[in-house]
Amino acid sequence: MEKSNRKTNRPGGFTLIETMIAMFILAVGMLGVAALMSRMSSTSVNSRYMSDESLLASEKLEDLTRAPADDPTVAAPGGTAGSLTADQSQSVTSGGVTEQVDYFDTVQLSSGGGSIIETTTAPNGNGGTNYTTTTQGPNGEITVATSNAPTNSADMVTFKRRWVIEQDVPVVGVRRVTVVVSLPNAVQGQGSTFQLSMVRP
Question: Measured between alpha carbons, how far is 18 from 150 in angstroms, rounded to an integer?
């Protein structure tokens, strides 16, 4: 008996099982890419808010550095003034002047329309609150307005600042000022806090 040299003809293309395996591998890869994109978005948002907090902490430290050494806002009666964990106010006498000093404020930031809008709060002395809004336009123009109502914007983000002034820390004759800025309302499920210190005479 003679063996046939003919090969069985198999139709070209993929079988159903091969197609299903390829689709499964593709689906797993797409899920991995989606998870990576989500993580990158969350990290990018956190970086943005940490950058804002760093800017706000530096800004407050600069304000407190510019104040004269005998100004009540930078005095530390009893060795320590302010709190990093709670809003604190107290009456301070320094350089012959007595003032009610707040060691906290709230800052709202918005970047709508190419402008950066910063609103800070402060008591107005009548039991109410003043809102000071600084708008920095894309052309470099800066405008400042004060009102008794906050400015609202769809992309407004609210930060909380608190600070502590410590007399004779870390050495006698200087004051350590520490500012903490936090994002009280979690963004994308994550809160954020930034702390910065400096020493001044």
Answer: 62
